[in-house]
Amino acid sequence: MNKHVANPKPAAGKGGKSVLSERELLALEAKYCSYGDTVHYSELPKIFDGCEGSFLYDAEGRKFLDLQMWYSAVNFGYANKRLNGALKRQIDRLPQVASQYLHREKIELAAAIAQDAERKFGRKGRVHFNVGGAQAVEDSLKLVRNASKGKSLMFAFEGGYHGRTLGASAITSSYRYRRRYGHFGDRAQFVPFPYHFRGPKGMSKEEYGEACVKNFARLFESEYNGVWDPKGREAEYAAFYVEPVQGTGGYVIPPPNFFKGLKKVLDEHGILLVVDEIQMGFYRTGKLWSIEHFGVEPDVLVFGKALTNGLNPLSGIWAREELINPGVFPPGSTHSTFNSNPLGTAVALEAMKMMEENGYAKSVPSKGAYFLEGLEDLKRRHKIVGDVDGLGLALRAEICEPHDGFTPSKALVDRMVDEGLKGDLEYKGGKYGLVLDIGGYYKNVITFAPSLEISREEIDMAMALLDQLFARVTKK
Ligand SMILES: Cc1ncc(COP(=O)(O)O)c(C=O)c1O
Predict the structure, then answer these.
(1) Pocket around ligand 1: residues whose beta carbon is below 6 Å from it?
(2) Percentage, residues of the chain above pLDDT 70
(3) Which atom of ligand 1 lies nearest, measured to the CA of 134?
(4) Is 60 exceeded by the pLDDT of residue 13?
(5) pLDDT tens digits for range 310-352
């Protein structure tokens, strides 16, 4: 709560204009804004005023290096000229049109995504749009319920996150998101993900992945394990929802063999694989889709966030033709007024072209490796860093108690986030802030999602600022 801003004093405006001071704004926020639509991690919410590249700016012009980029919605950097330009051009040409009519950008965007999927997965399919990741997850639930003749049970992972609408939170592992609200019908059984750092000791990453698959396969060995009728050869579950690399769960990267083993079990039992790429898609991990690292083909793929570089909440799903053709999923199956809006589809189409041209498949793994080297160096020098890992520019640092480097320390990470937002870390004679995101099963993981356009110099700066931050929060 913002107790300390309860009686703000009005401040003089900037440049002669009457603008509210930060204190006044925070007082209004405390009174008039619902807290239910945010996560309000820091004690004093930070107000930003501008952005460019890898940086956010506050009203005083302080510069904050952003290492989370709006939870990966802004993969291509703030104020990306090419994408902003596409949006501006569309505003001047065809900014509005009802989604029952067509526009060129929607069709070209759907074709670009579906043709890419056909090349990569060898499967024909179609693309369906909505706004916001959770809404696209809802659409995918309708799709798999329809394909399975109404089954409302799903598998999903412990540590998994798929959004906060009622359907999406029913397949998201945290009970906290459901506790007050219950759920309609859909429900997931949560299965362990190969989170090696906190897995059983004495197993390699590969072995732990295999053990997780084996444990899952065991559910189908007998009808009395609760999910499978061997006589009818039918599972009670329609689909398995996966994030190939867990996002909110703390950027947990499974071993390369894991999804192949899992998919085999799903195929043997007629269960669909739904891949949630909302956070890890669009080259965050060095490939368009993070599932491409793992050698399996999805039945349904859900995307959102960086599709428009955060300029428009466009989201969507790609699904195999058999699941989504108009004969089985007719007009009106889902609909939202803004679903394939021309501003969003125009930016997204430009983003798809840019991704093809910009060589992210090469630059992201190499920048990621450089970033990870920096994190490994920090781990060697700070006892609180228990684990670091990364795939492309999705990286993690797990913060632990200094005495064992293993017991999760949410308190230290919370302090890091708050200290980072003060904007007083030093680098080459200047003062900077750091924008960090927290994830993990124990909320003790810094989940790094820097701009894919981040420079090596900015990565050096990130390491220097993190070094100071780690020292500051552990100072007695
Ligand atoms: C993997 C994943 N799925 C779904 C969602 C929900 O997307 P949105 O917040 O746009 O509703 C998120 C958001 O962080 C996500 O990371």
Answers:
(1) 71, 132-134, 137, 161-163, 243, 247-248, 276, 278-279, 304
(2) 96
(3) 11
(4) no
(5) 999 999 999 999 999 999 999 999 999 999 999 999 999 999 9
Pocket test for ligand 1, best of 279, 282, 311, 312 (most atoms within 8 A of CB): 279
SS3 of the chain: the string is: CCHHHCCCCCCCCHHHCCCCCHHHHHHHHHHHCCCCCCCCCCCCCCCCCEEEECEEECCCCCEEEECCHHHHCCCCCECCHHHHHHHHHHHHHCCCCCCCCCCHHHHHHHHHHHHHHHHHHCCCEEEEEEECHHHHHHHHHHHHHHHCCCCCEEEEECCCCCCCCHHHHHCCCCHHHCCCCCCCCCEEEEECCCCHHHCCCCCCHHHHHHHHHHHHHHCCCCHHHCCEECCCCEECEEEEEECCCECCCCCECCCCCHHHHHHHHHHHCCCEEEEECCCCCCCCCCCCCHHHHHCCCCCEEEECHHHHCCCCCEEEEEEEHHHHCCCCCCCCCCCCCCCCCHHHHHHHHHHHHHHHHCCHHHHHHHHHHHHHHHHHHHHHHCCCEEEEEEECCEEEEEEECCCCCCCECHHHHHHHHHHHCCCCEEECCEEEEEECCEECCCCCEEEECCCCCCCHHHHHHHHHHHHHHHHHHHCC
Compute the distance from residue 223 Cα to the ligand 1 centre, in Å.
34
Q: Which of 137, 157, 162 to mutate to test the pocket of ligand 1 (most atoms within 8 A of CB)?
A: 162
Residue 185 has pLDDT above 80, yes or no: no
User: 120: CA distance to ligand 1 center in Å?
Assistant: 24
